[in-house]
Amino acid sequence: MEYRQLGNSGLLVSVLTMGTMTFGRKGGFAKVGDITEVKDAQRQIDMVIDAGVNLLDTANAYSGGECEEIIGNALGGKRKNGVLLATKARFAMGDGPNDRGLSRYHLIRECEASLRRLKTDVIDLYQVHQWDGLTPLEETLEALDTLVRQGKVRYVGCSNFSGWHIMKAMEIARRDNRIPFVSQQIHYTLQAREAEQELVPITIDQKLGILVWSPIAGGLLSGKHRRDKETPKDSRLSQGWTEPPIHNWDRLWDIVDELVSIADARGVSGAQVALAWLLGRPGVTSAIIGGRTDAQFKDNLAAADLKLSAEERARLDKVSQQPLNYPYWHQAAAASDRLGPADLAFLQPYVNG
């Protein structure tokens, strides 16, 4: 297992992180949840830790806290092999007006609730799950800073922020001497490469780490979903799960065709190829893998040892390339004479076409 530095911190995390959204079956998460018995969760956690994974990711909103409870009971208050815990807060945890958001009131209360459910005295990475839109960032960052200084949280990160949200937060942290974000958790796959236009460059510029959620697009890049074939009955898609949204199915199937072609030639799964491609992209620290079954976890874990050739990467890049949004298409056409070699290599297909 390879370990990478998490942003501008000294913390090393495995290139694969265990996603636990499948723990619990409450509310809307019944569509993806499958693990309700502590012994089953314990078995899967032991499997990934034994493979070298040192980060478990969850959120208070997953099955209304049940996911965190299952993890806490499975770990029994012990951290085998120095395992790290990451969780998140933002979404509604009750019906009251203050039971959601990124206010100081909500974040501190929910952090303390997560600590109780996880049966731990400290959360290694506490992430704001999504932009609030109401609470001033100064208040949010002060609350996170307080949690770090109280010893309840070690590092803080964000998830699902836009580029300007991140930059505003980083500047406020510098200005007010607050603990800054060390990472962002985002959606980024062969099917969804929008993050390359703002979020990946910001990651590199601001020395953040990238944790990728749903790195095989909710199973769509596993190789099990194919053009003109019936949707697998045990898949998230068949259960009505809508993330990620697919705006161009023909493009998705073209990507899957190339993915499966490479996978078949290598004798591996499509999921492993999709993960290997992602782990080779600039700025990516770790891909969050999940699974309903032990077999799915075992297959995904094998991606840590898969290295794609330059030719294979070029094939996948070509079939998955997306058009640039404004102002990036204008910059690509007009500013290429001022770019460094790495930037120019990324933009060259757009400059030429």
From TrEMBL:
CDD domains: AKR_PsAKR. Signal peptide: none annotated. SUPFAM superfamilies: NAD(P)-linked oxidoreductase. It comes from the Bacteria. Residues 16-320 form the NADP-dependent oxidoreductase domain. PANTHER family: NADH-SPECIFIC METHYLGLYOXAL REDUCTASE-RELATED, OXIDOREDUCTASE. This is Aldo/keto reductase. It comes from Kaistia terrae.
